[in-house]
Design a protein that fits this description.
Keywords (chains A, B): Lyase
Shape of chain A: globular
CATH class of chain A: Alpha Beta
Largest sheet of chain A: 8 strands, parallel, barrel
CATH topology of chain A: TIM Barrel
Number of helices of chain A: 13
Strand order of the largest sheet of chain A: 1-4-5-6-7-8-9-10
Oligomer: homodimer
Active site (chains A, B): 136 (proton donor/acceptor), 164 (schiff-base intermediate with substrate)
Enzyme class (chains A, B): lyase
Strand content of chain A: 5-15%
Pfam family, one (chains A, B): DHDPS
Family (chains A, B): Belongs to the DapA family.
Amino acid sequence: MPSAPARAALNAFPLTPLRDDRLDEAALVRIVERLAAAGVDAITVLGSTGSGAYLDRAERARVVRLAVDAAGDVPVHAGVSALRTAHALAFAEDAAAAGARGLLLAPQSYQPLTDDDVAHLYADVTAATELPVVVYDNPGTTRFTFSTALYGRVAALPGVVSLKIPGVPADPWAAAERVAEIRTAVPTHVGVGVSGDAFGAAGLIAGCDTWYSVIAGTLPEPAVRITRAVREGRPADALTESERLAPLWDLFARHGSLRVTAAAAEHLGHAAPGCLPRPLLGLGPADRAEVAGVVDRVLDGEPATRP
Amino acid sequence: MPSAPARAALNAFPLTPLRDDRLDEAALVRIVERLAAAGVDAITVLGSTGSGAYLDRAERARVVRLAVDAAGDVPVHAGVSALRTAHALAFAEDAAAAGARGLLLAPQSYQPLTDDDVAHLYADVTAATELPVVVYDNPGTTRFTFSTALYGRVAALPGVVSLKIPGVPADPWAAAERVAEIRTAVPTHVGVGVSGDAFGAAGLIAGCDTWYSVIAGTLPEPAVRITRAVREGRPADALTESERLAPLWDLFARHGSLRVTAAAAEHLGHAAPGCLPRPLLGLGPADRAEVAGVVDRVLDGEPATRP
């Protein structure tokens, strides 16, 4: 198996809980405080999991401000993706003013985007902000697929510090080869982080420096354990813990991670019922019951005390 | 060949031209005036062609107001699609206040939507507005695919007056069969309109009552001729005219209709260079030259005098 990276960091993606379709500020603060206390290395609000795409400018600025205040010493990054470049620029300005320490930018699309459109988007945003920018490759929601060559083109822009890639091959050697291929295409100072929680442990072991994690935003403890195990040179422990969470990864694959984490947060009382922005209704009763059962079993099986 | 419908209407979708990434009000007014003068039956602003997805609330309200004033007696419909139901409701309220005579609503998505999400979206919007609502099925941009059963479920809502379907089969009998199948699934008062300009003539001949037309928003004359030919019982003339425009349909298929019509409008001086919202750069120089050549040939070959 490939050797573990020197540093493996956990960047947690919390939900932005709503109540009656409005920002539930108290719930957001509690969620962010809980992540900071659990020992995540960074927090990214307003990613896909944070429903950034659904919130207006004022709501987004408020989310960043609340999260920065609640996170204490833990750095908060803010998603600033938008269909229009001008809006991403406005969100970036607001995020900086609210104390964000980094930006997450995806090529969100309505009309399909070309490589040139995307390269200019990143050039425009990085030129306008002093904050480091994470390039967010999430073809499932953006419908844009980065080539490795475009990774290189965008990563060469001043201000780009990391790529958030959408998973790695299941085979450990193939995963390490894929991460190495990306690293060859991008400047050495640019990090490569894995997303797709089922691939978190495998991605870190394959040489990704960061796990951009959905589950860490709602159930941070197992994600912290996985990340620490890799960091401390215990990859087998990381894989065992990830395997223990397989029923969650299965639910993510079936329903999408957002609907599952929203149901989990509602089940645990971290968010009010119906915490997603309409038109997203969330899971139906049977699927919710299944999520609750899986979450309870995962937490009951925890090595540490349930918080 | 199936018999022509008693009434065939042309609903034209104009661009929303920008200049330096801001609304070009004068150009929008000229475009809308030109459509009204050309004899289109209705005008829909802020559809996909009108870049509705990229504009903020104030811009959208302004576009509707300007178009209503410029269109004279021609009714103006307004696209009110949004990722979030609350925003679609706000856009609908603004459109009504600005004098729109109908709304166009697509299930725009970031997270994939379920049938229940979409049905509730339409229920929420139709319940909140007195304006008639056109259900906009555009899987290429929304990534949501309606089943015929969901057409029926949504069309049964009070306030829904028409479905905008994304094309018909190429074979005339298959096209007529598909339109008949949809008509069977929806209440008789709900219209069925075709989009996908290459299918405009075939769709009207197959029994669609309306052509929701991109090309009519930029080059209205040939689209008016096609629609009148069908209305007057001359389906062969409609197909001949549509065939004459085949080089345009080919460009639409290769680049998407938005980038092609934007390049056409810029070539004809109807819009300033770079009229699309960033990050959409529009076509490159070689493709623009090809569009200009096709547009000039189409207009040179017009039976009527070029306006």
